[in-house]
């Protein structure tokens, strides 16, 4: 396979993280910002940073889980893309303040307790340039799994995914507004979706934010 | 501009009709169906059929409004894509029964009264092959404009967009289920979004469906 064919193939992927197409659209409209972007929770078998790379962004990603990190890097090698995804903890980002035009975390922050989510969002704000854009989404109390598992308080629950213990923190749809009180909310979407997953109908609840850091 | 550059440019567009990326993803997974697709309400300055064309689909579209039709065809000429968008009425589709693998109508059907929506959905079902997929979305009563304008009954309202009279029909989030009682609902998303539009914060409510026609 030559380089051109590889590039075309990357372009033709449809990324399953659909709301990030909207974020990309908002990013594309911010013509004064450098095309630098950080993904917090960047791992998995189809890393969405690849979409941003295809559109010319310089990408960086941090991923806590070594297995998810390896899957993402395998994908990047296969697509011959330099995505720069490394092991890291979004509660302590190893990037300079105001160093990125854009930052996002998709389906990721809610795997921590709410205090850790707050710290992670603070870190994302710190590394974002003035005028920069951020996407973050949250699980909501409309999710059918909300209430299941040991309750740690504030709709934080200890649950199991494929026998592996995980934290899921659920938010009232307006609750994350408080995390962005120093930013401009450009877009917010409260959504409840029903789909077939492994033969069963499931109901999921999310609220997605696109927010902008104040200009200097 | 040579042909290759034109093709790349088309590929690099981000289509504002974000939920259609998800529909495209579902379509791509149906490997046994022919790549033929019809858009009902296909006009406008960025016709999403272009996205499907880029992914190799044979496209057809109908558009009621000659002005929107012209905008779409201008786009297609600019991108050097053959999209086959024609003037037409989705209540009476001029296509053979079971002739399309896929059909969709995005942000369109709710500009008619509910009886006409029902007739249009019936037509879309008719031209769809057994096992084929359909995307349709609806305005919901959660939209901030629901209740405004002359009430024609059943949350059907006569309103004005830029001084032009239009019908908007609003649905309870579960109400369109009835239109798909003979189909399998693969995906359904009830969403309320807030965004800045022309300097004002607006609230919109939609429910999106991806449904499958029963196999023969």
TrEMBL record, chains A, B:
Residues 38-135 form the Methyltransferase type domain. This is Class I SAM-dependent methyltransferase. InterPro entries: Methyltransf_11, SAM-dependent_MTases_sf. GO terms for biological process: methylation. GO terms for molecular function: methyltransferase activity. Keywords: Methyltransferase, Transferase. It comes from the Bacteria. Its EC number is 2.1.-.-. It comes from Paenibacillus puldeungensis.
